[in-house]
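re: ur question from the group chat, yeah i did fold both. here u go
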Amino acid sequence: MERLMHVLLLGATGKVGAPIRDELRERGHEVTAVVRDGSRLPPADASLHHQIGDVFDGAFLDNAAQGTEVVLCSVALRDEAQRDRTPVTLIRRAAHAAGRAGARLIALGGAGSLRTASGVDVVDTPSFPEVAKRESLGFRAALHDLIDDAPEDLVWTMVSPPLAIEFDGPRTASYRTAYDDLIVDEAGASRISAADLAVAVVDEVEKSQYPRRRFTVGY
C-alpha cells in the first residue's frame, strides 16, 4: 500500500481538478483544497479541508502549503478575465510555496508544448485553435522556466494531458506515458478521460516517477 499523504490542491473544483480531488480522497489521501468559491466543494471532513483564497496570492499560498507534502496545481487560465495572470507567475508562486513547505510540486500544464510526429510543438501547428494559444504558450513558458530556474532542491513534475480530455469518459486506470512526445492511439487520436488523467496524476503523487521533468499521458 502506498504511503498516505497530505496534498494541497489548487483548482480543486475545476473539470480536471475535481476528478483529481476525488481520486486522492478515494485512495485515502488528505486534501486541502484551494478554491475561490467554497460552495462548489463537498463538505469538509477529516480528508478534505477548505482554503478559500487566491492562488496568485503568494503569502496565502505559502501559508496554505505548510504541513503538506505535495502542492498540486490544476488551474486553467484561458478565461479572458485572467489575461494578466500568467502560467509562469502561477507556477512560480506554487513552486515557492512548495519549497517553503519542503513539499514536492506537481503542475498540470497544457498539451501545446508536446512534440508532434513532425517534430513541431502542438501549439505551433497551423490547426491549433487560436482561443487556446495564449494559455498554451504560457504553460510552455512555465515548463521552460521550471527547467531553467527551479531551485535545485525543489522536486517538481509537470503533467501534460493529451489534446482531448473526455470529461464523461470512464475510469479504466489504463494509460500510457511518454516524456515530450504527443501520445496518439491506434486511430490517431490524442485523448484520455478526465478520470484516467486523475489516476495518472495521483499515481505520480504516490510514486514520484518523473522528478524534475515533464511527462504526458494518453491512451
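okk and heres the other one u asked abt
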Amino acid sequence: MKIKKYTCLYLLVSLLWVVSVYARADIAIVVHPENNSRFSDNDLKKIFLAKTKRFPSGKSASVLDQMAGSAIRKTFSRKMLNRSEKKLTAYWSRLIFTGKALPPKAVHDDREMMRLVGRNPKLIGYIDASSVDSTVRVIKVF
C-alpha cells in the first residue's frame, strides 16, 4: 500500500513539473512598427535600466513597464535584466533619490501596452508573446 501511495505521489509531482515547464509564456519586447533599429541584449538592458535614453538608431526612447507584482514583470526582470523585482525596485529608488532617472510608466495589461507602443515611435515595452498583433513590431522573444 505504501509503494502505491508513493508511486502516485511521484507521478503527480512529475506531471505538475512537466506542466509547469511547458506552461510558461514567452515574453516579447515590442516597439512601434516603424522602428527599424537592431537591438542587442546589451542595448535592451541599457534602455530598460535607463542607462541610455536612445534607441541604437539614435532616436529618443521611452520605456513602458508592466504593473508591479505581475508575473510577466517578475519574469522579465529576472530573465532580461538579471534582477529580482525587489532588486529592481531598489535600483529605481536609488536613481530617483539621486535625480538620475524616473521609473518607467506602468501599464495595466498587454492591450494597453500595444495600444501605446503602436501609437508612439519613442516607446518600448514587453508583453506576453501570445498577445502580439500587427500594431507593434517584435524585436526579441524569450
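fwiw on the second one: The chain has one domain: 25-141. The first helix runs from residue 2 to 23. idk if thats what u expected
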